[in-house]
Design brief:
439 residues; alpha+beta; Creatine Amidinohydrolase, Chain A, domain 1; Creatine Amidinohydrolase; 2 domains; six-stranded mixed beta sheet; three-stranded antiparallel beta sheet; 12 helices; binds glycine; binds manganese (II) ion
Length: 439
């Protein structure tokens, strides 16, 4: 089937966003909604700003990423975009918006964000989804929890437009991952691989959805390793890269792990890759994501036993929690405008919390999957000294084959991460689809 263009999909997307807003506003007794894109923030004592990232509740409406802009919406009316275009010669003001989405808005250009106050219509009770500040002060209720929760909750269900944005982000991410692997094979340093990644993704670092994790050897045992070594050490054995890309604010979040040579670590990668694909196939409507997380622990237990890292039964390794020594994070999370997307624990649109399974504090999603949910599936097996040291001191640690663990420790660890969409029938694996298209 030919892929639809964003322009063909956006109208339906915006209609869905408006109808979600209509329902939430009616349920919470508001007449309208003001959503701010956000303002740049300054470093302490400094006159330069952090990279600007727009409010995701704003970006759910439109791809624009300009600061100090507002969407003003009343049910039944065309949404208005109050677009801030300052008269500035220090910085280049944002260009007037253009593209497939602009005609859906009544565009009002202002020179100062305070002019918003003249462009929101009169009367009524307003909900304001924006950081508090002088522009919106007194206009309405800021981030009212029930309304904001209702909107965040439904954002888990991606529209076809959003999925196409994520597929386009994946195309860029996959291109960059391939450049990174080529750099690894050619002898580049972590830093050089990072530069090659940005170039291939066509992104400045601040345009990436999160800091690249580019890790050789034992650095891969640091889950969010953030240093980019300028020098490549001799004899690098392994390479873990967790890096994404964005399109219109929507992220991909991809991890691959490579061994420099065949051997026990490559065997571990191959085994985890097979388990990861089986877990990705479980991303189906009606499945409790917590179950996928626990299945991941069972799969890791089987691998630990079959690869000779743990003795005894896989069931025992699972029951005693030994798997958490090697796999100490969650199986994944919702993905979208935020890498760890909103409302992962909400019991329903009105609130409530779905608890994490006991003993699994880092799981970021506990909801039951619905069609359109986009999630990551990212099992790992790591050799993390602090966790191993704890296990060594505990009775359950006796099941670990310590000489084998010590032998594999220099390779650091493995994570394999795909982005998967629940739908009727087989899931859509955006990441595998992207790598297959690039092959
Ligand atoms: N890149 C962060 C994560 O995988 O959750
Ligand atoms: Mn992730
Ligand atoms: Mn990741």
């Amino acid at each position: 089937m030919a892929r639809m263009t964003l322009g063909n999909l956006y109208g339906d997307h915006l209609r869905e966003v408006m109808s979600r807003a209509d329902r939430a506003l009616a349920a919470c007794g508001y007449d309208g909604l003001i959503i701010g894109s956000g303002s740049p923030r300054y470093f302490y004592l400094d006159d330069s700003t952090y990279p600007f990232r727009p409010n995701p509740r704003y970006r759910a409406w439109l791809p624009d990423a300009s600061p100090d802009c507002f969407v003003v919406y009343r049910p039944g009316e065309r949404p208005r975009l109050v677009f801030h275009q300052p008269d500035d010669y220090w910085y280049l003001p944002p260009a007037l918006p253009q593209g497939y989405w602009v005609g859906s808005f009544e565009l009002v250009v202002v020179r100062s964000p305070l002019e918003l106050r003249q462009h929101m219509g009169t009367g009524g009770r307003w909900a304001v989804l924006a950081e508090p500040g002088p522009v919106t002060e007194g206009l309405g209720d800021h981030d009212p929890a029930t309304l904001a929760g209702m909107l965040d909750y439904v954002r888990a269900i991606k529209t076809p437009y959003e999925l196409e944005c994520m597929a386009l982000a994946t195309t860029a991410g996959v291109r960059a991952h391939r450049a990174a692997e080529a750099g690894f094979r050619a002898g580049a340093s972590e830093y050089e691989i990072h530069l090659a990644y940005c170039r291939a993704a066509g992104a400045r670092e601040e345009e990436l959805p999160y800091n690249n994790i580019i890790a050789f050897d034992t650095h891969a045992a640091v889950l969010h390793y953030q240093v980019l070594d300028r020098q490549r050490p001799a004899g690098v054995k392994s390479f873990l890269i967790d890096a994404g890309a964005q399109h219109a604010g929507y992220a991909c979040d991809i991890t691959r792990t490579y061994a420099a040579a065949p051997g026990a670590f490559q065997d571990l990668i191959t085994a985890l890759d097979a388990a990861q694909q089986a877990l990705a196939d479980r991303v189906r409507p009606g499945v409790d994501y917590r179950e996928i997380h626990l299945e991941a622990h069972r799969a890791v237990a089987s691998i630990l036993v079959s690869q000779g890292l743990v003795s005894g039964s896989a069931e025992a390794a699972f029951e005693t929690g030994l798997t958490s020594v090697f796999f100490p994070h969650g199986i994944g999370h919702l993905l979208g405008l935020m890498v760890h997307d909103a409302a992962g624990f909400m019991a329903g649109p009105g609130g409530g919390v779905l608890p994490k399974p006991e003993g699994h504090p880092y799981l970021r999603l506990t909801r039951t999957l619905e069609p359109g949910f986009a999630v990551t599936i990212e099992p790992g097996i790591y050799f993390i000294e602090s966790l191993l040291a704890q296990a060594r001191a505990e009775p359950r640690g006796r099941a670990i084959d310590w000489p084998r663990v010590e032998a594999l420790k220099p390779w650091g660890g493995i994570r394999i991460e795909d982005n998967v969409v629940a739908q009727a029938g087989s899931p859509r694996n955006l990441t595998r689809e992207g790598f297959a298209a690039a092959a």
